[in-house]
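Per reviewer request, we include the raw input and output of the structure prediction for the construct analysed in the revised manuscript.
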Amino acid sequence: MSEAHLDPTSLLAALVAAASEAHTRRTWVRRVAEVLARALPLTRLELGERVEGTADVDVVGGTPDGAAISTTRRRLHEREIAALGSGQIETSSRRGTDGRSLLVVPLGGAGAAMFVALSLGPGAAPEPSLLAVLGEVLFHLLRGQEVTQRVAELSRRAHVENRELRGQARHGERERSLVAQSAAMQEVLRRIDAVAPFDTAVLLAGESGTGKELLAQRLHRLSARGHRPLVAINCGALPANLVESALFGHEVGAFTGATRRHLGVFERADRGTLFLDEVGELPLEVQVKLLRALQSQEFERVGGEERVRVDVRVIAATHRELEPMVAAGAFRRDLFFRLCVFPIRVPPLRERLDELPALVAALVADIAARLKLPAPAVSPAALLRLAGHSWPGNVRELGNVLEAALILGRGETLALDAALAVDAPPPSAPIERLDEAVRRCITDALRACAGRIYGPTGAAQALGLKPGTLQSKMRKLGIDREPFVRE
């Protein structure tokens, strides 16, 4: 039973005042329910929005005391379908002796996508004059809430974007110049310049230290989003339990220590570019959510229920061979194709030694300026010494050696002998390619099982695989069991 009865004018004024303080739909439902309960015998209010192209509806519902606000997705009821189609309020007949009833109020006229459902307990029926304007008032109040929420969201994002741009401006002067005199690097730049104007996803593939992030910066700078933030994240440097929060953000109370809302890199990169470095390191369970976010440009923060929509251009980078990982089930095939729309291979330093003189000169100038040391001339003998090194760490390793040589030479000369004389770690065993490792495991099992696949003594059982899965992997790797069959 309502505590007091408001006349229609006072009720509308109270609704406007309450809804103006609501920044989310959950808050809107709670505030509106509190006010309506003062004029109606309201027991529950539900705000529903039809899911486009389906017979489902997303519902935020709660009681007037605000103790049980919930968000669910369910099928539309018949009365709701009728109200949305006609634009007229649907009223159920009172049931039993307790006199309970239901009002379904469409928001926006015939063909509307949203409604408010009012569950009423015993008491006086709503005044016809109130019902006539209730739907229109609630519709405009909801639109106002959405505008308020959008303004708050844009303000928050603008603050984050401003911080990102200030950071980029601070680091811009230290950004290393890009040297590309070799034919291999000229081809890389040609492909970057070709794809930059479009929002096409780009995958930069190359060994660690080849300058993939520098190329991502160039791609972003040449794009129509160049005046927006470029947000970079190293997927391999994130703890497994925080990867999802880093990508999509989290709400207050989402987990222990989440004391305030955190915006993930997707939101921070809105209308800009997101650089996913070392994307091959992402756990499979996160790959699923990343794929969904890339496809729809929508996601939910960890611990949140509201969908967040963004406009993000994605550049991914990896030092891994993703295709063998796909074949082995370590990387999702659908995510691979979503990221690898426009692949660019970045060559290692050993394939571009013809531009070593220009690269060394640029690095020495940049490092000397940062260290506030004079930049010494690089002699032909020094270049020969550098050209004879294998550079497994590529340009990053070259920069480290030159920095050490500058420090040891006090800026007067490059002390390369001392810089390169640091004991290198003992050479590790060559890393086996993933597809080769899988091939070796399968062929060893087939050899041990005499070519048998099925049964308790078959290769599938030995490898812990289903026979169909093993046969699929054999087809992908071109393995024939016949050479292993023994009579």
